[in-house]
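Re: your question from the hallway

Yes, I did run it. Sequences:
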Amino acid sequence: MAGLVFQHQMDYVKKGAWSTEEDQKLIDYIMQYRIWNWSHMPKFAGLSRTGKSCRLRWINYLRPDLKKGPFSIEEVEIVIRMYQSLGNRWSAIAKELPGRTDNEIKNFYHTHLKKHLGTKDEVKPKSRKKAKQIEMSNQKKPLITTCPNIEGPNDQSLDFTNSSSSSYITFDENYEILETSNQENDVTSIVNQVHDDNIVILESNPESSTSSSPSSVDLHINDFMDVSVHSSNVVDFWLDLYLAADNLKI
DNA sequence: AACCGTTCCAACCGCAAACGG
DNA sequence: CCCGTTTGCGGTTGGAACGGT
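Structure:
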């Protein structure tokens, strides 16, 4: 009896993917009787599901006001902007995006943005065991990423455009500066040295930066990919980076 | 065609907050 | 205030789909 879990002695709950029949039962029931109690409603609707499963299915997939399809540029911008200010408060971010669910935004972040945005996750320890796990995970190597003109919590500000040579900078997860360099570095060797897919190396390129576009920077992704990014603030920068990366499928 | 690794997302789980008697 | 129940949240995972060899 795969996928069935006995809840009490007599009844069982189905788990796993929802069938179209189950979807229709849930839709029909809610359309007729509205949502009154998630935990009691499944048996009245003829569903062998937990209330929790029904709620999730409705909120994340069946609700008629859900927006389907890929995120628009405006939506991506909001996600990035909100994530910069709120961190992993997905439900709060979802409130700014009508028709999108917290789960959808969370998935979108993990699949499309995480490697570029780094992490701002605020993990709240729920137990001593959990706190210990967090402590251990924090001992891992720091996030390394770079961004032009970024202002971190300590008002550290970077300006790549005034540099006369290739530059890079590494941050930890709190945007504390770990290391800077203005030398002509072999960027590839830095990437290989750290073995971290999340690395983004930014290099200023004075030749390509004109006076009318002072915040233009060239993004060196690897030996085969270079992208120009023209952004004056961090949100626009990450948005441009997301779009560039998406185009290049990195 | 078969296999294998990767990506993506629907759905799960545990926990905490909110609710109500 | 207490305590049991319900709802909501965020992290995690199973597996389908896809791409490469």
